[in-house]
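[recover] target loaded
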């Protein structure tokens, strides 16, 4: 990793909050994403697999909301996962407008160990940050998410 990806204040300017969130996200997820690559899974695909774990399918619209993907991006990810034999789509006869996505046996076989690896990654992050800082960071991020989720975006002239 080079200094451009690790320096919190590149170019000697004060980093914006958005820059800090983006850099933190990159650094927090980089090691786990390497594990995913070993299995030929992209981060977006992993989010879909993880969301489907432990449940008997999910509607595409609900899945898009849960994994924070726009519908076309989710459709492409599910297409790739379906071609890999990790998920399958079903249209319930009771509601032909809905499409449900389910993990296949192969998908479950891949997802279970990756969920364990994700938990190990979380524990590693907790050790690096320290228990108290990790707990405080989770609480702060939860507050940020709650506030932003229920606050309408500013009008153009408010920027």
């Amino acid at each position: 990793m080079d200094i451009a990806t690790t320096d919190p204040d590149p170019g000697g300017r004060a980093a914006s909050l958005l820059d800090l969130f983006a850099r933190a996200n990159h650094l927090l997820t980089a090691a786990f994403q390497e594990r995913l690559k070993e299995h030929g899974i992209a981060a977006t695909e992993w989010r879909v697999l993880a969301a489907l774990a432990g449940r008997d399918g999910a509607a595409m619209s609900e899945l898009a909301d849960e994994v924070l993907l726009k519908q076309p991006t989710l459709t492409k990810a599910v297409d790739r996962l379906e071609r890999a034999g990790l998920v399958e789509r079903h249209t319930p006869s009771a509601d032909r407008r809905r499409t449900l996505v389910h993990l296949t046996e192969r998908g479950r076989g891949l997802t279970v160990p990756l969920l364990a690896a994700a938990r190990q990654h979380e524990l590693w992050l907790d050790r690096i940050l320290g228990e108290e800082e990790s707990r405080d960071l989770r609480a702060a991020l939860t507050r940020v998410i709650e506030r932003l989720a229920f606050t309408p975006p500013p009008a153009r002239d408010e920027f």
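[recover] notes: Helices lie at 3-6, 17-38, 43-52, 60-67, 71-83, 105-129, 131-149.
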